[in-house]
Amino acid sequence: MAEIALAYASSHAPMMSAARESATEEQRKNFFGALEWLRNEAQERGVQAVVILSNEHFTNFFLENFPQICIGVGERNWGPTEAWLPIDKAWIPGQPALAQHIARYTLNSGFDPAFSHLLELDHGVMTVYHELSPEMQLPLVPIVQNCAVYPMMPVRRAYEFGKAVGEAIRAFDGLDRVAVVGAGGLSHWIGHPRVGDIEESFDRWFLEQLEEGNVDQLLDMPDWEIELAGNGAHEIRSWLAVAGAVAPVTGQTLAYEAIYPWITGMGVSHFETS
Amino acid sequence: MSLYQLHRCVWDSVRFASVSSSNAGGHFDSSKYDLTDEERKAFEEKDVAALYQLGLHPVLLNGFARASGFTRDGYRDALTVFATGEDRTGRWQK
Questions:
Q1: Residue B18's pLDDT band (boundaries 50, 70, 90)?
Q2: What ipTM was estimated for this complex?
Q3: Which CATH fold would you assign to the domain A3-271?
Q4: pLDDT (0 to 100) of residue B20
Q5: B37-50: buried (b, 16+ CB within 10 Å) or exposed (e) per residue?
Q6: What φ, ψ does residue A115 adopt, rounded to 5°?
Q7: Which residues of A touch B82 (CB under 8 A)?
Q8: Taking 60 as the threshold, does the pLDDT of residue B1 lie above it?
Q9: Residues forming a β-bridge with A93
Q10: Interatomic CA distance for residues B73 and B77, integer angstroms
C-alpha cells in the first residue's frame, strides 16, 4: 500500500513566476527557499507521484457545468494554459491508475467528484508543481476544486473530501510513496475594489491554527467570513483538503510573506505525515 | 438578456484574444450574444466599472481587464467607487 510520504500546502500566484523579481530578495529567499526544501524532501523521500489540489479559474469549466471537484484521470494533462506564464508549455504525465482509484474510492465514500481525461492546468497547479518538479516529469494527479463560483462546497466538506483522498492513497497498491499538495490562497482579492490588498492578520491566524491542529476553528467558517480575507481566500479549501488527507494535522509554517506585488499572502506549510 | 449571456460573451472574448495569435488584431463579434443595451455598451467600451456593477464574476473581470490592457492599479482605480466598509468581523480580528 502507498504511504503519504510528503504533504504540504503553498500559496500560488501567477506573479510568482511571471513577476518573480518584483518581490524583495528576502521574500523570494524565504518563499522559494521553503519550496526548495520541500522539493529536496520529495527527492530524499522517493516520492513517485503527486496529487495536487487546486482551484478552477474558468480554465476547464464554465457556467454551463461547474463541478465542485474534478479529478484528472488522464494519462497526461496540458499546461500551463496562460501564454504569458514563463513556464514551458508541456504535457504533464498523469498517474491514471492512482487517479481512477481516488475517483472510485471517493465515490464509494459518499462524494461525487467529476472526472476528466484531459485537464488544462493553469497557474493554480503549474506554479507549485513546477517548483516541485522543474523538469515536469513527476507524475501528477490534478484535482481541481470550485473555490470561486457560488455556491461552493463548504470548507468542512472540502476537508472531509481530503480525508477520503488520503484514505484512498493509503489503500492504493500501485505505488509506495505519494505526495499530497494544496495550492492556493492565502488572502487576496481578484476583480474587486480591494485588488492588491492582503489580510495579513488572517493569513497568520490561519497558519497558526494549522500549527496547533485547531482545524475546527477553520472548518466552522462560513463563506462570508472567509471572504473578509478576500474572494481569493476561498482557495483555503485546497489547504484544508490536504489537512484532511493527513488528519489529525500538525502544520509547520515554513514561510509567510505578504508580497504586495503578487497581490497575495504567500504561505508555505509542511504537514506532518505519519 | 441574462447575466449568463454577459459572462459567456466576456469569457469567449478573452479566450478569442488568447487562444491563437492568428486572432491578433481580429474583431470579436459580440452580436450573437443576447445582451441588454447596457451590457453591450459596457462590454464594447471595456467599461470595467460598469461590468462590475452589472455583476460580472470577478475572475472574469480580472481576465477581461488584463486582456483589455488595464493595469491592476488601473482597474482598481476604476472600481474604487464601489469599495464599501464592512461591519462584520472575522474571528481572527477579535
A1: confident
A2: 0.92
A3: Protocatechuate 4,5-dioxygenase; Chain B (3.40.830)
A4: 52
A5: eebbebbeeebbbb
A6: -135, 160
A7: 193
A8: no
A9: A76
A10: 6
A149 touches chain B (CB under 8 A): yes
Which among B62, B79, B86 has CB closest to A228?
B86
Average pLDDT of the residues in B41-62:
96
A36 reaches B (C-beta below 8 A): no
- Residue B82, min C-alpha distance to chain A (Å): 6
- Using the Cβ of A208 and the Cβ atoms of chain B, whether some distance falls under 8 Å is answered with no
Distance in Å, alpha carbon of A5 to nearest chain B alpha carbon: 32
Q: How many CB atoms lie within 10 A of CB A36?
A: 13
The pLDDT score that the predictor gives to residue B25 is: 60
Q: Omega into A240 within 30° of 0, i.e. cis?
A: no
Please list, in sequence order, all residues whose beta carbon lies within 8 angstroms of the beta carbon of residue A172, skipping any fewer than 6 positions away. A1, A2, A97, A98, A101, A102, A178
Size of interface A-B (CB pairs under 8 A): 70
Q: Which of residues 57-86 of A touch B (CB under 8 A)?
A: 57-58, 62-63, 83
pTM (2 d.p.):
0.96
In this predicted structure, the answer to whether residue B21 has a pLDDT above a threshold of 80 is no
- Per-residue pLDDT tens digits for A104-160: 999 999 999 999 999 999 999 999 999 999 999 999 999 999 999 999 999 999 999
